[in-house]
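assembly run, all chains below
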Amino acid sequence: GAVVSQHPSWVICKSGTSVKIECRSLDFQATTMFWYRQFPKQSLMLMATSNEGSKATYEQGVEKDKFLINHASLTLSTLTVTSAHPEDSSFYICSAILGTGVGEQYFGPGTRLTVT
Amino acid sequence: DQQVKQNSPSLSVQEGRISILNCDYTNSMFDYFLWYKKYPAEGPTFLISISSIKDKNEDGRFTVFLNKSAKHLSLHIVPSQPGDSAVYFCAASANFGNEKLTFGTGTRLTIIP
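ok done. output:
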């Protein structure tokens, strides 16, 4: 159990276009999901916390108008990179908390975004 | 400000021996700690966790030890197997896991056959 999927697994887009990444909890409901990005040989950096039915909470330095997050249901959160630039090229990973109380976070397989 | 630190970027261990990965933290609000294993271009895989009310948690070959006074935790893998070769991240959270995770910088573990 506790499977999180992401789609697409990789995407190439041109500068100036927008890209949507989906994160789904397949066998559990997640009121809270998180979006991370990872640059090569670096740790995962939290971008934002996504709560079902409310606005996302962004970490300092993350542009909320550039990285649009929507958590429309208990099993789906989406991250849209708007007007993408080459510096947005990165590995984006989502996670979801299983249960309430003491909860482990389970991660999706990640999405490789390359902006040309 | 790196609140969770893994000071060893890499570690090599012979197959069958014990692997010990270390992690230090600075934020006293952290009360839940997790270890993840990660392969390149994949999401982290949850391994084991520990709450601050415990000092040890064991799951098969994996044991996590927590020393709250020293703000230190360690992951023991015994016996080490070739399939354990990966990057290991420790992570910390407040509110018993219901808050955002802060990740360490990772330790690349290589198991030598």
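Chain B has a mean pLDDT of 93.

The longest strand of chain B covers residues 86-93.

not gonna interpret more than that til we talk
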